[in-house]
Design brief:
Layout: H1 19-22, H2 35-48, H3 65-73, H4 81-88, H5 92-98, H6 100-108, E1 116-119, E2 128-132, E3 138-142, E4 149-152, H7 153-170, H8 175-197, H9 201-206, H10 211-218, H11 224-239, H12 242-249, E5 250-253, E6 256-259, E7 266-268, H13 278-293, H14 298-305, E8 308-315, E9 326-332, E10 339-347, H15 353-356, H16 364-375, E11 384-389, E12 395-402, H17 420-438, H18 441-448, H19 453-481
Antiparallel strand pairs: 1-4, 2-3, 5-6, 7-8, 8-9, 9-10, 10-12, 11-12
Helix pairs in contact: 2-18, 4-5, 5-7, 7-8, 7-17, 7-19, 8-17, 8-18, 8-19
Length: 491
């Protein structure tokens, strides 16, 4: 999209969606192994790397976490980087959310099973949540795929398990309560993968986690007050749609809806570019939207064509993503009561590429979109990608989706020891289902086995990594107090 720069650079040009360069190479011939052969492959992997080895953590020696974070910040909007550091300093769990690169490097230095699947790449507790499916059901699934890439399946499980340990420590829980929650995540993953291994391909593909069905099944395991809070969160999610966003984020100027400025978190695009004619700018932006349409399936292109671009603003999102370029696009349908918000989010190289190899996609927006489609049971109908050159003459990739569509989440740092194992188990099941769609579920299930060795080893790993995370969080606090990094808190 656009960036603040003198007008001599000119407006953004229509994007190149990648063309032939962004298209994956033709797949090699698929070898269809029998169930017995696939199970043997999993057992052989267990011989090469015993399950107990999952407990071993070999972090990169003498790595400087601050230098790595600064390296990421070099390509981000400079004025927003202090907000990222401020959010990461809030707690060790907040730091963990922003430290995906650090853990990716540590995982890459550790032995792996060699059994691969499409990875989320950042599978922590807060990257799961509820949202509306195209069939208008409320579903629970992973919801952030900025780092998605193929890799060893256990990297996602370890990222999830460590997030449980980190959040539980932040909550001040006893060791036994923390371990019970972490083990629940690993056990749910193992048991779910064994169930998926016995299913047909189509049964795995159609599997999903319906929120209302899950509450009906597991609600009795929650305390009455926690069940009431869960039901309230679910009810609130149904109200988080484009109409709610329209009421919260916009105002009317001369009879026309405009996104309200709330700098530095929300800044209209006109305030970020200098000397660019507004009419010409929006002409170019509408061309960008039309170009993005090409990444959608035909019926959704027709639907998107019925909306008109009205206004654009930059919006700060998340923790780890702060500083990357994220835009919200106000679209209007048949009249003023038919708004829709799209979010265009910058897509950079996955943090996993340093340890798992480069993506096969030249366009990182396409990498994110295809990874998300592969892992989610159902995805946003407007999920697509584009490439564009901004007014700063830098070419960047983006992916787009609806800003809000019944989205809701559960705060791990507000959970109790009684409820966390249940939530962690739902995340473990969801992650196993996502991996079963792309990985060899029979081999992975055979590797995991029937005993609890896997989840016990994963819990040991999670405890060790939480120690590393605490040291990294402390290092950032020291860097802030020494003036090495600038911090903007409270945003």
């Amino acid at each position: 999209m656009a960036e603040k720069r003198a007008s001599s650079a000119g407006p953004a040009r229509p994007p190149d969606l990648g063309g032939k360069a962004a298209t994956a190479p033709p797949p090699s011939k698929v070898v269809h192994l029998s169930r017995e052969q696939r199970a043997a492959r999993g057992k052989a992997a267990r011989t090469a790397m015993p399950l107990a080895s999952m407990a071993v953590l070999d972090p990169v020696a003498d790595r400087d976490p601050i230098a790595l974070l600064e390296e990421q910040s070099a390509t981000r909007v400079p004025d927003l980087v202090p907000i990222r550091y401020g959010r990461m300093l809030t707690s060790p769990f907040a730091f963990y959310r922003g430290g995906a690169l650090l853990m990716a490097l540590d995982l890459g230095a550790t032995r792996s099973s060699g059994l691969k699947a499409q990875l989320c790449g950042d599978a922590h507790l807060s990257n799961f949540g509820v949202f509306g499916s195209p069939e208008r059901r409320l579903v629970f699934d992973a919801n952030d795929f900025d780092e998605t890439l193929p890799g060893p399946f256990e990297w996602d499980v370890k990222r999830l398990a460590a997030s449980v340990e980190v959040a539980a420590r932040a909550n001040g829980w006893k060791t036994k309560d923390r371990r019970r929650a972490v083990v629940a995540a690993g056990a749910s993953y193992r048991n779910a993968m064994r169930s998926f291994a016995a299913m047909t391909n189509l049964e795995v593909w159609y599997a999903s986690l319906d929120v209302e069905a899950a509450v009906a099944e597991f609600g009795s395991q929650l305390r009455p007050d926690r069940l009431k809070m869960t039901e309230a969160t679910i009810a609130k999610a149904r109200t988080r749609d484009s109409m709610q966003a329209f009421a919260k984020l916009t105002t009317t100027v001369d009879g026309v809806p405009r996104i309200k400025a709330d700098p530095p978190l929300v800044v209209p695009i006109e305030d970020l570019v200098e000397g660019v004619d507004a009419e010409q700018l929006y002409h170019q932006l509408r061309l960008l939207v039309r170009s993005y349409r090409r990444s959608l399936q035909p019926d959704r292109r027709v639907l998107l064509e019925q909306f008109e671009l009205v206004h654009v603003a930059r919006k700060v999102v998340g923790v780890g993503s702060v500083g990357t370029r994220a835009w919200i696009l106000l679209m209007q349908g048949v009249d003023g009561s038919d708004p829709m918000f799209l979010q265009a989010k910058e897509a950079n190289a996955s943090v996993l590429e340093r340890v798992a190899g480069a993506s096969k996609y030249a366009n990182h927006g396409q990498r994110v979109v295809n990874g998300q489609h592969l892992m989610q049971a159902s995805s946003d109908i407007f999920l697509g990608w584009q490439r564009t050159t901004g007014v700063d003459a830098v070419e960047r990739d983006f992916y787009l989706r609806q800003l809000r569509d019944w989205k809701g989440s559960f705060d791990p740092e507000q959970m109790l020891p009684e409820g966390m194992p249940l939530y962690a188990g739902l995340c473990g099941w969801t992650l196993a289902r996502a991996h079963a769609r792309s990985g060899d579920r029979v081999a992975i299930a055979a590797y995991l086995g029937r005993k609890d060795t896997f989840e016990q080893a994963i819990a040991d790993f999670a405890a060790a990594y939480a120690d590393v995370n605490e040291r990294d969080h402390a290092a950032l606090a020291t860097a802030a107090s020494d003036g090495r990094v600038a911090v903007l808190s409270g945003l």
